Each structure stands twice: as structure tokens, then as C-alpha cells.
Amino acid sequence: MKYLATYLLLALAGNESPSAADIKAVLSSVGIDADSERLDKVIAELQGKNLQELIAEGSTKLASVPSGGAGAAAPAAGGAAAGGDAPAAEEKEEEKEESDDDMGFGLFD
Predict the structure, then answer these.
(1) What is the DSSP string of the chain?
(2) Where are stretches of biased composition, namely Acidic residues (predicted)?
(3) What is the pLDDT of residues 99-108, one digit of tens each?
């Protein structure tokens, strides 16, 4: 990922076709040693391709991937409802009371 990010940074800076030496120079400036084998693979995969088209294609692929956040929240909410609504309501009221407590200090004391 760091090689791809560096490649993209160099491309955004105006270097349309960054070389392995360019990427190594950027990475070494921040104290990262580059793995030549992986770096060569990234450069070979990106050589001669339009980065804007690759980003657009990747965005459409990511849009079709379901996110894990929404799926995980639904079972948790369903489990709470099955247990009963009364305890959940009491917990909410207690949290509200605690948030109103000023711990003995008033705004104008």
C-alpha cells in the first residue's frame, strides 16, 4: 500500500510515470526501506495505465461491496428488543440524569 500511495503522490505532483528510484527516494526520506520486488510489481502493474481511469474503476467496484457496519448493528438492535424494552428505557433515563449532574460546580459559582 505504501508503494501505491507513493506512486500516486508522485503522479499528483506532476511525475506522470514515477520510477522505482523516485519511489525509493520518497520512502527513504521518511525512513522507510523499500522492498524492490514489491516495488517493481507495483510499477509493472501501473505502467502505461491512466490513473484517473483506475481510480474510477476501483470506486465502482467498492460501491458494490457491502459494508460491515450496517450488518453488525442490526443483530445487536434485534437482540436488545427481544430482551424487553423496559430495562433499556431505564438505562437511558439514568444516563440522562448523570449527564445533567454538574458535580457541585455551577456556571456562575
Answers:
(1) -HHHHHHHHHHHTT-SS--HHHHHHHHHHTT----HHHHHHHHHHHTT--HHHHHHHHHHHHHTSPPHHHHHHHHHHHHHHHH-HHHHHHHHHHHHHHHH--TT--TT-
(2) 91-103
(3) 555 566 665 6
